[in-house]
Write a structure and sequence with these properties.
The structure is a single chain. The chain has 373 residues and is an alpha/beta fold. Helix content is 27%, strand content 27%. It is built from eleven helices and 20 strands. It has helices at residues 6-19, 56-62, 90-97, 116-123, 134-139, 142-150, 180-192, 200-206, 260-268, 285-294, 306-314, and strands at residues 33-38, 41-47, 73-78, 101-106, 127-130, 154-162, 166-168, 195-199, 212-214, 217-219, 222-226, 250-255, 272-276, 278-279, 282-283, 299-302, 320-326, 336-337, 353-361, 364-371. Strands 13-12-11-8-16-6-17-20-19 form a nine-stranded mixed sheet, with helices on both faces. A five-stranded mixed sheet has the order 2-1-3-4-5, sandwiched between helices. A hairpin with a 2-residue loop joins strand 1 and strand 2. Helix 3 runs parallel beside helix 4.
Length: 373
């Protein structure tokens, strides 16, 4: 039996730190960190860097020198795989190494494999402890966990609003609802997701870059623009999304009723596009998410306006919300807020968040959580 201690927690926290070095770079695989500890010291480490690459446990084992001692322990943030896959089963490598103690952060989310790795290790006489910093280990792979269970993209929405619920003034002006510290946190979440989406209204009014700018590194996920009628094409030459170094990562999503001339203009400009069906005068976002699944895009971070946000939440298309709230009162009778085209009669019609996390960024607050099914 491996007793939980501050030292045990500290080692797992370092394994999590290693895993997060690949923040947003392992899709459609999880982020995983592993370390080997002897006499309280880390003697080897590894983390999974990219999909198809060596697993964290394998890297740690390959860089480990010498023979395991009685107390030598492998720490890994996720249950070691028990199937061969592209890189071989990690459980087989651990057993072959001679290590007799393994500490695991969280179980494999895949119902078909959950607990299988532990059973194999224990059957080989290895002592296994599970659940050290479990919530942290599980949360960093929220996209992978959802994808592997549901086989559809993890759809997250980012909202910024005042404490009276306004996302923009009645003029449409929204720069900036929150401060710089909160906006910097958004950059980190953009980096995590393999795809980001906004509406054409956002492109036309804000000319966003949608890149993740952390320290001196600029990174771009795949970028989607929802433009049902293919409006404003004449100004695309002025927008970052269609002119910057990452323009090839931008895809325009339009409806089946867009004019043929507009489609030709889009094609002539060499811009990638997806055509999807419309429903009640709106893009069918459900169909868009199904297309993302077909193309193995496991998660999408949507930064919508109030109308799209309301539609996604009310129709059960969103899985997770990031709500950044500024200590401001806009007090604008016609300010833009959630609830467009939706009328709730009683509090029982409220949509709830669960597994809530709260953080403070300067004067602004973030509340995030899963939408209750």
């Amino acid at each position: 039996m491996i007793e939980e201690s501050e030292e045990l927690i500290a080692h797992m926290r370092y394994a999590i730190h290693l895993a997060k070095k690949a923040w947003g770079q392992t899709h459609t695989n999880p982020m995983v960190g592993a370390i080997i500890v002897e006499e309280g010291q880390i003697v080897s480490e590894g983390y999974h860097k990219r999909s198809g690459g060596k697993h964290a446990e394998i890297i740690a084992l390959e860089s480990y020198e010498g023979s395991p001692k009685e107390e030598t322990t492998l720490f890994v943030t996720l249950e070691p795989c028990s199937s061969e896959g592209r890189t071989g089963a990690c459980t087989a490598a651990i057993i072959a190494s001679g290590i007799k103690h393994v500490v695991i952060g969280t179980l494999d989310p895949n119902p078909r494999h959950r607990g299988g790795g532990i059973a194999l290790l224990e059957s080989a006489g290895i002592t296994v402890k599970v659940g050290v910093l479990e919530e942290e280990c599980r949360e960093m792979n929220m996209i992978f966990n959802h994808w592997i269970v549901h086989k559809r993209p993890f759809c997250a929405i980012k909202l910024a609003m005042t404490i009276d619920g306004c996302m923009a003034a009645s003029t449409g002006h929204s720069k900036w609802v929150t401060g710089e510290v909160a906006r910097k946190d958004v950059m980190s979440w953009r980096r995590l997701f393999p795809a980001i989406a906004v509406t054409q209204n956002t492109v036309s009014s804000d000319n966003p870059k949608l890149t993740s700018r952390i320290e001196d590194e600029i990174f771009s996920s795949r970028r989607f623009v929802f433009n049902r009628e293919l409006r404003d094409l004449e100004n695309y030459k002025n927008y970052h999304l269609f002119t910057d170094d990452f323009k090839s990562a931008t895809t325009v999503v339009y409806g089946d009723k867009a004019s043929k001339d507009h489609v030709k203009t889009l094609e002539a400009n060499g811009i990638e596009s997806w055509k999807i069906n419309e429903s009640e005068g709106k893009l069918d976002i459900g169909e868009f998410l199904r297309l993302c699944a077909e193309k193995e895009i496991p998660g999408i971070f949507i930064e919508p306006g109030p109308k799209l946000a309301t539609d996604l939440i009310a129709n059960g298309l969103a899985d997770y919300l990031f709500i950044y709230q500024a200590p401001k009162l806009l007090i604008d009778q016609k300010g833009y807020s959630l609830g467009v085209d939706r009328f709730s009669q009683v509090m029982d019609e409220s949509i709830e968040l669960i597994d809530i996390k709260r953080q403070q960024f300067g004067e602004d607050a973030l509340i995030r959580g899963y939408l209750k099914p």
